[in-house]
Amino acid sequence: MKKRTMEYHLDGLIALLLFGVFAACLMAVLFTGANAYRRLTFRNNVFYENRTCAQYVAVKVRQVQDAHAIEIEDFGEGDALVFPDGNYVTRVYYYDGYLMELYSEKNSALGPQAGEKVMEAGGLSFSLEDGMLFITITDQEGETEELMLSLYGEGEVAV
Predict the structure, then answer these.
(1) pTM for this one?
(2) pLDDT(152) > 70
(3) Where are the chain's structural domains?
């Protein structure tokens, strides 16, 4: 009688041990999957923000009737891309952690804080050389992406 009770306890202990090993393996797989998902989501968000910022600036350049009229001036926390439109200008620039856009009169006294926030960014700089527009975009983590636009012909822009 005692031998049979001992066998039942041993069978129950083995079943409980196997269940514990199964539960531990299941938790390990779940935590690994959740960590991988978190890393992939973060990376995709960073790439999305950089691509969106670059495409936003490229589309603004494409919308200009005379691409050769595009200027770069000091505005905000660095350079501003200036798109003339008659007596008005549109400025795309970086200010206070955001890519900003300001539509105003040419000689307006509005400062960079008056613009509309487009999206978060870490920095933005422009340079114009021989019909080529070089754009450097920095995200919040400090990673940079460079975009080069060729301004050629009237109203035509190639990426």
Answers:
(1) 0.68
(2) no
(3) 53-158
